[in-house]
Amino acid sequence: MRLSILTAALIAAASLGLSAGTASASEGAELKSKHFSFEGVFGTYDKAAAQRGFMVYQQSCSSCHAMSLVAIRNLGDPGAPFYDEEYPNPNENPVIKAIAEMFTVQDGPDDEGDMFERPAKPFDYFPSPFANDQAARASNGGALPPDFSMLVRARPHGPQYIYSLLTSYEDEAPEGVELRDGMSYNSAFAGGQIGMPPPLFDELVEYTDGTHASVEQMSNDVVTFMAWAADPKMETRKRMGWMVLIYLFIFALLMYGSYKAVWKDVEH
Ligand code: HEC
């Protein structure tokens, strides 16, 4: 019995997502060590940062990077950057509706059999900037901008790596490195040459909450947003993990109490 309680407690602890959040070198490139609000067992997404990060995504990254597994309405789900208790159904949330209208999606065919464009609705998925991978490569000097939906989880030390990538562009390649046409030098990218031109510069976005939009700040914010997109259920999962642990603790006390009571008159 004790063993099974221990096993269950271990499973509950694992579900809290205990992970060593240390940054280390990935394929030879040195990562910046940076702590994010969502790391650790008590970590939650900093909602203000995630909202600002969405602005960065919308105004810069979305012109090249798709996020095809996320629907616009997901931004208003519980735990999401724009969740509002007043609108449990995000389709009715005015902020989500306004965000949807910023995007245009392909629809059709209409009565004449033609495809047409319309402003997005909350139930639409984030539209992809390119029709297909070939078109994406053709516009980016042969390099493919990866889809954001899972990117934070797809790269080792995802948050630290992407933060480092966004803040490690260098104006000039170190001596001896010959940059190929259309490439930029980035010391966090394996090999140093990246097909993504620097996407951020100071004050690129005008934050409505007055935060100064430095490259570091925007990087922190967009990574928080991307981390949410890649793991939208994290907060629920951590909360569930704690409830299970508390439940098991009380259950263990009760079991111990009944064990003592049952055997109290028996010599052993
Ligand atoms: C002009 C188009 C363009 C914009 C805008 C852009 N990217 Fe990229 N991005 C690319 C391309 C192309 C690649 C692939 C680079 C390569 O493989 O050399 C890429 C790759 C990446 C990668 C993956 C690197 C890897 O390990 O494979 C990340 C992370 C990334 N971009 C983040 C961002 C963020 C965050 C923004 C917005 C702040 C952004 N990008 C804006 C074109 C763009």
* Total beta strands: 5
Q: Rounded to an integer, what's the Rg over CA atoms?
A: 24 Å
- pLDDT average, as an integer? 89
CATH class: Mainly Alpha
Structure description:
By secondary structure, the chain is mainly α. It has one domain (2-70, 126-262): Cytochrome Bc1 Complex, Chain D, domain 2 (Orthogonal Bundle). Helix content is 38%, strand content 6%. The strands form 2 sheets. A 3-stranded antiparallel beta sheet has the order 3-4-5. A two-stranded antiparallel ribbon has the order 1-2. A hairpin with an 8-residue loop joins strand 1 (104-107) and strand 2. The longest helix has 29 residues, at 234-262. It is globular and about 85 Å long. Heme C (HEC) binds next to helix 6. Heme C (HEC) is lined by residues 56, 60-61, 63-65, 140, 143-146, 151, 155, 162, 165-166, 194-197, 199-200, 222.
Q: Which tags fit this structure?
A:
268 residues, mainly alpha, 3-stranded antiparallel sheet, two-stranded antiparallel ribbon, 6% strand, binds heme C
Indicate the topology.
Elements: H1 2-15, H2 47-59, H3 94-101, E1 104-107, E2 116-119, H4 133-139, H5 151-154, H6 158-167, E3 169-170, E4 184-186, E5 193-194, H7 215-230, H8 234-262
Antiparallel strand pairs: 1-2, 3-4, 4-5
The chain binds heme C.
